[in-house]
Amino acid sequence: MNTVLDKFAQAAQRPYEHVKAWKQERGVKAVGTLPMHFPAEIIHATGALPVIVQEMPDAITSGGGAMYPFFCGYTRSIVDQVTEDQLGFLDAIMFTDHCVQLLSAADVIRISRPETTIHFHQLIASLRQPWSLESSVKTLRELVADLEEVLGVVVTEEALRHSISVFNENRRLIRDLYQMRRTGQIQLRASQMQHIVKSSMVMDKETHNALLRELIASLKTSTAPRSDEVAIFVSGHLCHAPRPEILDLIEDCGATIVDDDLYTGYRYVSTDVDAGIGDPIVALATAYIRKNDNVPCPTRIDPEVDWEEWLLGAVDRCGAQGLVVLLVKFCEPHYFAYPRIKAAFERNEVPHLMIETEHDGVAMENVRTKVESFVEMIKVQRAARAVAA
Amino acid sequence: MKSHVLGIDFGSTTAKVVILDEDGNTVASCVSQKGAVSDEGVRAALRGAFEQAGIDLSAVVRVVSTGYGRRMLDIADRTITEITCHARGARALVPEARLVIDIGGQDSKVIALDRSGLVARFAMNDRCAAGTGKFLEVLARAVNVELEDMGAEALKAEDTVAITSMCATFAETEVISLLAEGRPKQVILAGVHQSIASRTVGLVGRVGKHDPIVMTGGVAQNIAAVHFLEKALETRLIIPTGAQIAGALGAALFALDDLRSASKVKRDDDDAVEAKLEQLLADPQRCTPACGKKETPVTFKG
Ligand code: SF4
Questions:
Q1: Ligand 1 centroid – CA A333 distance (Å)
Q2: For residue A363, which residues of chain B lie inside 8 Å, CB to CB?
Q3: Which residue's CA is the closest to the ligand 1 atom numbered 6?
Q4: Closest partner residue to A380 among B118, B125, B126, by Cβ?
Q5: What is the pTM of this model?
Q6: Which of the two residues, B300 and A21, has the higher pLDDT score?
Q7: Which segments constitute the ATPase BadF/BadG/BcrA/BcrD type domain (chain B) (predicted)?
């Protein structure tokens, strides 16, 4: 089992080394995508390896001069990766926009490295309009045509259907792990779950699926009820992974992270593409506009789903006693949503703690004190309720 | 022989120790100022407390540590954060408290308590010394005033000046240029305290203002910090006797809970506490006086 988890950890920790080695071994192209809504099945259907460009922990150097310091760590990091010539192994970067900072980062990349092939398509942000589906289908068809031209290939419906089924299986297997973890059947740390999801973003999906099946078969399952001292739901951190040290710290402070809506977590695998829909592009577009039903995204406009209400339900469903919000510094969509989350949790008297993260690092001791206090607060409140009952 | 419990608040600049007997009477409280997270400070505070209590080391059966250096003490049976301990200690000192403001050497916290006195939510300074005792310490040095005199000096000012830098180091530069401009020290000091107050008000805003408000921690003894904070919050702050030892008192109360929930009979491993205390106190660099500063004994009964 460890060797499989090690493989996931290795790909997650050194994503680009993994991709370069894969390219060399298989002689395939690699196409980068930016999070969070690009349907990577389309790249997979061309035979190229889809790679979600990751935030790297390195200090921001030359890219710092090209971006304002008040941009989120993810966008500053990817610009720095381009200006530091770290993404040259990608044959192209394709993305659909979801926030102003991401768009600006793409512009900066275009201006500072005109030789980079970086193409962008605008998926409709408003998910519940009568024309949302039609608009998304149109965008995805344009995107396919663009990709065909960039890579000089033809994307067949059959190839797309195959890719959809491979991706669906990947999502399902990871969701199975989530479910087993929620119920306490298996014990995987949050940082291990992050490695699993993050590696899926850069590894060949069939290979990843095979490893997931191997992992699931080898995991020891328990029928005993979950025995966590304090169960926690972790939310936030759009576009990129929180540092695994932060997840470990939370769990080292007496909490167990039982569920999440992180992008490098459950958000990434929440929504399958309906293989029963005849036209695969329509199927992909449908999955896009239905995403919010499963995990709401603050970058999308959806009058029918409130993230905060969904979070209250999600915390309850997984049996968590509290919510930890990991808020990326300068992430505007999250900044916009957080006050409502805070208010909803306070109104409903569900404990919650916000931790702001920064690319340049967080004061870990300060975070430790906050998390320990949060766990103590939950324990003391729980004990008081038990006495009162 | 009565059993006793020990609460140790191992702060960034001071160590505080409270000893309670098994009936919850405070038998000793001691503060020692020995600089950054120092073992020597803890030893001094412990010696002072034992001297005050007049008990043997063997009488102590439970130890809880809190504060910045809480995990550095292997004599502790368990560690609890300063947020939880200050809340417990403040509530013990002022039972009606609904909000606790604790400004310590390295961090500042605002803790909202529910009606039954439990922590409902809290906020803490995030990443720099702005609004902490350290901020005052750095700026006292910059204006060449003793830390303990800076509050009284600040209150002599008829005016204030805005100190806009959040970071203690930048604020120091700002203060130096204000001095160079010829601004009076008192006015600058008033600005420094006003700055601390406005940072703290920001934290209060995050958890919500609930009266009555109790202030604990070393900065509670600074009259100008209290004055400007009261002005900014438009309310009176309660500064209990023993404000500085609230965290250690909270820790001792948790130790008392542990003692009461276990049997009062001496356990086999109670000797381990004594042995560890002996070891800690046997350090050759014995410091005198034993206790840096004796707190007015708190008349608290848990
Ligand atoms: S959604 Fe947030 S994290 Fe993602 S690019 Fe925009 S600002 Fe950055």
A1: 7
A2: 126-127
A3: A99
A4: B118
A5: 0.90
A6: A21
A7: 6-255
CB distance A36 to ligand 1 below 6 Å: no
CB contact under 8 A, B84 and A381: no
pLDDT tier at B283, thresholds 50, 70, 90: low
- Domains located in chain B, CATH noted: 1-94+242-260 (3.30.420.40), 97-239+287-302 (3.30.420.40)
Question: What is the CA(A239)–ligand 1 centre distance, in A?
Answer: 6
A214 contacts: CB under 8 Å, gap ≥ 6? A4
Query: pLDDT for B204-242, tens place per residue?
Result: 999 999 999 999 988 898 999 999 999 999 999 999 998
Q: Write down the ipTM of this complex.
A: 0.84
Of the candidates A334, A328, A287, which has an alpha carbon nearest to the alpha carbon of residue A308?
A334
What three-state secondary structure class fits B98?
coil
Instruction: Show me where the domains of chain A are located.
Output: 228-388
Spatial CA neighbour of A370 closest among B217, B89, B82, B13: B82
Helix or strand holding residue B294 (H, E): strand B293-294
Fold of the domain spanning A228-388: Rossmann fold (3.40.50)
Considering only CB atoms, which residues of chain B are within 8 Å of chain A? Answer: 68, 80-84, 107, 116, 118-122, 124-127
Q: Write the pLDDT tens digit of every residue in B89-125.
A: 999 999 999 999 998 877 889 999 999 999 999 999 8
Ligand 1 atom nearest residue A100's Cα? 6
